[in-house]
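Q: Sequence in, structure out?
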Amino acid sequence: MDTTPPFIEIDNVSFGYDPRRLILKDVSLKFPRGKVTAILGGSGCGKTTLLRLIGGVHACTRGRVVFDGEVVNTRDKAQLFRLRRRLGMLFQFGALFTDLSVFDNVAFPLREHTALPEAMVRDIVLMKLNAVGLRGAAALRISEVSGGMARRIALARAIVLDPELIMYDEPFAGLDLISMGVAAKLIRTLNDVTGATTLLVSHDVPQCMAISDYVVLLATQGRIVAQGTPAELMASTDPETRQFVRGEPDGPVKFHYPAPEIAADFGLGAR
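A: Exactly. Output:
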């Protein structure tokens, strides 16, 4: 039995942007150090919210988030600065600065968080761009690159400080099949080469199953439907798990959001 403490722990966490409506309710998860863990689930189940809580963007309504043995306290600005120095975040749409060059986008965290001389900044930025295959694009403007290239530039920026934790929010969204494959291979390679811990939020089941060590499947309010290795989830006989990983339209997850009988909305009573 593995007794290694988890790198990230979600301990009985509840959270809602509106106190009357919880997005996450009593969620407990543990993410192992040095592994790629995919967090799958339908829209609105709280996947991205989990990443925001880990990054200290929001405070838990109840429960706690533990980062490498340290409880995340959103009121402790010094702690947040120190912890965020240890993580990299790839946002869903890249969040690149459109008025900066590719080089300056990747250099931004180094210039903000370190006092390195510009010559060293240059070497590090070019090395990270080379890792994602875009060293030759350093001088380009963001408006001159494709969507797939922009996602790789954002990845270079996310890893420029050599983070111990890398979090990806929908890294495959809007990409063609080739770009998607390139992105998936990069995520796996960077995890293996750097020894970082990777959390990957996505709807893309095939890509996540191909590169992940562990998979967590969430439903509404962060309810854990299943968790385990990709092979275990793909072989699951649980109807809800099977429906999601196989993309079946019919099953426990319904198309319609809960609503009263349609006759009631039109003022029609029983006849």
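Strands lie at 8-15, 24-31, 36-41, 62-67, 70-71, 87-90, 165-169, 197-202, 214-218, 224-228.
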